[in-house]
Amino acid sequence: GSTKFLYFRERGWGLNAFAYYLSRMLVDIILLCIKGGLFAFIYYDLSRPLFDRSELTYICVAVAYAAAPWGYIISITSNKQNAVILTACASFVFGGLTAGVKPSLSDVEDGGPLVQAIFAMSFGRWGVESIVSKWMIGAPEPYWTQAVEFLEKEQGFKLQDKTMNENVINLIILGTVLRIITYVLLVSVDRNKQNKETYSTLIQSSPY
After folding, report:
1. pLDDT for 8-17, tens place per residue?
2. DSSP state at residue 192
């Protein structure tokens, strides 16, 4: 993004890439927790879900943690002009289109390994199911029975007490894996602009 050229310059003068990456990640994670908490605070008062505010905050912060690395990856691999459009597309695909509403999670089970893998990378899929599950578990009759018939049996959502915790763990794993990919890209993309030898040059000069 806006700091890319500053990173290239400082990297060329010996900046430690891992130290830079770690400091940026720590700051961003703190900001994500604040932003996710503020969103959950406002959303809770507007929607009045049938579960605790702390649980909604827990879900929103985990979703933010898993969603943010898509922006990092796009920022590293694309130019500034295309980054905004590509980030919007990634948000639409992994936050909306694959959230499990349409196509439903039941349809995904019949879609094959590729479709299932795409949905597994969706922060929207894990976040929506967590909220729906917690909300419906607290619903009185006859709404609970109707939720089981439609949301669980037809749509494929898991309406269980353990769903939220399992999905939050999946979001944390997803966010962590994407952050590892971010670091690999940070040190490997545009190495010539970082005043470093490219990997192809290193391979060619290798005695092996």
Report:
1. 777 778 788 8
2. G
